[in-house]
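TICKET #2291
ISSUE: user wants both folds in one file
ATTACHMENT 1:
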Amino acid sequence: MADIHVSRRALVLGAIALALALTLAARVLKHSGTSYAVSAPPPAATTAAAPPAALVVVDVVGAVRRPGLYRLAQGMRVADAVARAGGATRKADLALVNLAALLADGIQVVVPARTPGAGAVPASPSAPTGPVHLNSATLEQLDALPGVGPVTAQKILDYRHQHGAFSSVDELDAIPGIGPARLDQLRGLVAP
């Protein structure tokens, strides 16, 4: 059998390399979230029960299979409310509904039916086809209103986000840039 001669320097370098490898392995295990401690309680025992999700109540009407009031989790979209109401009927004109809009408590989601002759003469893209619903309108829909530019449209969206759903058109008076004259001009063009 051959004698293996290992120098002291090789032993020290080997020990350092082994220590570095163990340190690196410990860090990888620590950052991966894997715990091998025997005394650690299971995760379910240490976490408190999650609070129930906040709910919003919306009224879904129009060309849907089951119109009515629905409770949905906060953060859901108009598309979720329409689906919860059984989906749109064949007569629904979903092009007039912003399905991506976030739901707010107390709003009414209106799914209009197609009207006979719709599409014969397309309306101009900037002209609203009916009242703009303040609780579900997009920035572009609000910007298309007369006398409302992109800055005021954003203020309306910010107000809706901070204060919740509009309960009446008169609440627009609280938004900077909309005075009594502008409010009278918008009264027939918008709805809560």
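ATTACHMENT 2:
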Amino acid sequence: MGLDVLTPSRRRLLVVALLLAVALVLGLRHLHGGAARVPIPPLRTGTPARAALKPLVVDVAGAVRRPGLYRLAPGTRIADAVARAGGATAKADVNLVNLAAPLADGEQVVVPVRGAAAVAAGASPTAPLDLNSASAEQLDALPGIGPATAAKIVAYRQAHGPFRSVDGLDAVPGIGPSRIEQLKGLVIP
């Protein structure tokens, strides 16, 4: 049945019903958040956010195909550094490496050869270092921790007992929130 067979009053009623249906659909979309949204561009400051995030420089050594220095994005894990160095060799013992640990700038990742002794003294740990049992020399090998700060950590631990969390380092003079963030994943209480 076409519109030409409808009487003028029925045509008006049909048009009004269609307009109400469209208004109802648009109203429901608006109420349920389906209305078109205009994205708000990020505020522009003098320096783009990506430029503020400096790449990490890490030294990948040991049983990898291409040992050397690598620039990696912030938030990168040890597994990414090993992959970037061509992956582990057939002689590597990757079970001794915490591949999930986050990297810090200036860190050395050592992939040991199967059957070899533990990581050489002075190299940064690839597994988290225990704050409550680490020596001053081991703490000194952490990024951003020098001999003086390592000695303060040991002295604080001896005076106040074991650390209960990494955030407990905030009580050690010379260690602030940014250093604690850098050490998370590298140390455990």
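RESOLUTION: both attachments delivered.
EXTRA DETAIL ON ATTACHMENT 2: The CA atoms of residues 34 and 143 lie 49 Å apart.
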